[in-house]
Design brief:
elongated, ten-stranded mixed beta sheet, alpha+beta, 15 helices
Length: about 625
């Protein structure tokens, strides 16, 4: 299997042009991929024609319109040079080393035939997928035999320009970005970055990277750029966030199907190819003996592939599907940053099928509310960057967008995409935070999709028994797992900047409690306490090293342990459950006298409703690698 990062390879159709005095063909035998041939199409005789022997290569598959346009330009040029208006398009597999699949090959031929007819040529196409005999009489002049390798590089449609930004205030008034001075520092920072392309310049390394190192989030040096590895503490945090993302989705009030799937999809599939073309130029591709595959950049492909096979009634809508999906985006290697800009990310991707526009808007707002609630739980607020696929999309959805602004009591930055791009969505909200470096960063998103149900063949049966296409909402309520962890770390950095100890939410802290025996004789009591705490679903470690207590306390604080307890002779005087413990509480940054029951009750209240997992590393500090 060969691996190719980035966008698709330059397409390379191969062509042999022969200017013929006479050309004849006749079908002999069909192959398994033969197309149906209309009456009279099994043979043909042509005088004074340019015969175009054409082979579609595998790398042509992702760019059918571009390849067809490039081929049409070449045929047009050659036909004009030899001064003929009669063309024969002859599928000829023998010029290729890696043949394209039958379906995209026929699509290219069909598109090419149409383009040439639009240019005024008399076009004939020999049947595809048949063994044929032919005779040809070449005219023999210098231009009578030409070969070409046709690439689409010069024929690709340029993305229409004319992106426009404006500010929508709470009264529905539109403002030019250069004239709007409101919204606060965070909004102004987002506006300058996104609309005016003025990124805030901050000196030094981002402080959150220190926390990545502390908890074991690193680049994997033996992989491609932009791929991370997670040491045990980080792996535990990763899985807890994944658990929490699923828990959040299941608590919104939807019926949700939890699914799992593959991470690569064939570009020979028309729906996959069209979706990939709209995504842009940050695609990974993989080549195997089965052809070329795109690495998914979200969970859309797998969920849509499943949804098209489901029998869905209007009574079951809204219906959600969720996968914690590994996704791949070919970020520039020099721009990759831990957690925030990576080439392999993990997205708790939720898609919601809605029966109509009213249902889609209702659930769009409910998801919006939950996105804001999850940010507020970390003490953060989002600014709204709202993308619309056209000016019409803004006008059609202005009441919905105003509703978002008024709920948040803040303006929105509107990005209007230029006309002429066949987007599958109408409204896309990017939820932006201003981080500790004064940079505006996207975390979560929600989007209204009006095109992919048709593209992938997803349908439901309405009240009258007729098939209908649903509207699809795309969302990642927490953002990717990586970006949620980024937000957690950045929040801790901001707390440190305010003169407080950096903390993690207790449910997410890899080691929630650590017991520090004064000497070896206190270890049995520590083990008793640890067992009780573990039965209460609290992750508890024991510093069993032969270090002094002061060193153990420093190390526990340096590790950001939630609760630190020294166990000595005093803690041995009473039965385990009756002992009053001196507990260092990192969140409150104080020592507190607590019984074991009080500690468990306090900790349980802080982690209530959140997922739990056991330690991913030895409980005894002495057994952990350095």
């Amino acid at each position: 299997m060969s691996y190719t990062p980035g966008c698709f390879d330059p397409p390379a159709m191969r062509a042999l042009f022969i200017h013929a005095e006479r050309f004849e063909y006749k079908t002999r035998e069909r192959t398994p991929v033969a197309e149906e041939v209309p009456e009279g199409g099994h043979q043909g005789t042509f005088e004074e024609a340019l015969v175009c022997f054409l082979t579609m290569e595998e790398q042509d598959e992702p760019s059918i319109p571009e390849v067809a346009r490039a081929a049409a330009a070449d045929v047009f040029e050659v036909a004009n040079k030899v001064q003929t208006k009669r063309l024969v398009l002859y599928p000829y597999a023998h010029l290729a080393s890696h043949l394209a699949a039958p379906q995209p090959s026929r699509e290219i031929l069909d598109e090419l035939e149409l383009l040439l007819k639009e240019k005024g040529f008399e076009v004939h196409r020999a049947p595809f997928g048949w063994y044929k005999s032919f005779t040809i009489s070449c005219k023999g002049h210098p231009l009578a035999e030409l070969s070409r390798q046709i690439t689409a590089e010069g024929a690709k449609k340029a993305r229409p320009t004319g992106d426009r930004y404006l500010v929508l205030d709470l009264e529905g008034n539109e403002h030019e970005v250069t004239a709007f001075g409101g919204g606060g520092d965070g909004f102004q920072g987002m506006m300058k970055k996104e609309a005016l392309k003025e990124e805030h310049k901050a000196s030094g390394e981002p402080a959150y990277l220190r926390l990545c190192k502390k908890f074991g989030i690193e680049w994997e040096g033996m992989s491609d750029a932009g791929h991370q590895r997670y040491q045990p503490k980080a792996a535990l945090m990763f899985d807890l966030v994944a658990d929490y993302a699923q828990q959040v989705v299941q608590s919104i009030g939807l019926s949700v199907m939890i699914v799992k799937g593959t991470n690569m999809f064939s570009l020979r599939e028309k729906a996959v190819r069209e979706h990939a073309e709209l995504f842009g130029d940050r695609l990974y591709s993989i080549e195997t003996d089965r052809g070329k595959f795109v690495m998914r950049y979200a969970a859309c492909h797998e969920q849509f592939s499943m949804m098209k096979d489901w029998t869905i009634s209007y009574k079951q809508l809204p219906l959600g599907a969720l996968e914690i999906a590994d996704a791949y985006r070919f970020e520039q290697s020099g721009e990759t940053t831990l957690l925030f800009r990576v080439r392999r990310l993990n997205m708790p991707d939720l898609h919601v099928l809605c029966a109509d526009d009213a249902m889609a808007r209702d659930w769009f707002l409910k998801i919006h509310e939950r996105i804001g609630k999850e940010a507020a739980a970390l003490g953060r607020e989002y600014e709204l960057l709202i993308n619309v696929s056209s000016r019409k999309a803004l006008d059609d959805n202005k009441d919905l967008i105003l509703d978002l602004c008024r709920r948040e009591k803040r303006p929105a930055l509107i990005h209007i995409y230029p006309e002429g791009i066949n987007f599958y969505w109408t409204v896309n909200v990017e939820y932006m935070v201003t981080d500790s470096m004064k940079h505006s960063k996207e975390i979560a998103t929600v989007q209204i999709d009006t095109g992919n149900a048709e593209r992938f063949g997803i349908k439901f049966t309405d009240e009258g028994g007729k098939p209908q296409r649903p509207i699809i909402l795309h969302t990642a309520v927490l953002g990717s797992i990586e970006r949620y962890l980024y937000l957690v770390f950045d929040t801790a950095v901001m707390r440190e900047a305010a003169g407080k100890p950096g903390i993690l939410p207790l449910w997410l802290n890899p080691e929630q409690v650590r017991l520090l025996p004064v000497n070896e004789s206190h270890l049995p009591r520590c083990r008793e306490l640890a067992e009780i705490l573990r039965r209460s679903n609290l992750r508890c470690g024991i510093d069993d090293r032969s270090e002094g207590v002061s060193r153990k306390v420093r190390d526990a604080k340096a590790d950001w342990v939630g609760f630190v307890i020294v166990v000595g002779d005093k803690e041995m005087e009473f039965p385990t459950v009756q002992s009053v413990l001196k507990v260092y509480d990192r969140e409150q940054n104080v020592d507190r006298p607590l019984s074991l029951g009080e500690l468990i009750r306090d900790a349980s209240e802080r982690v209530a409703g959140k997922p739990t997992r056991p330690l991913y590393f030895p409980a005894e500090v002495s057994k952990r690698p350095g």
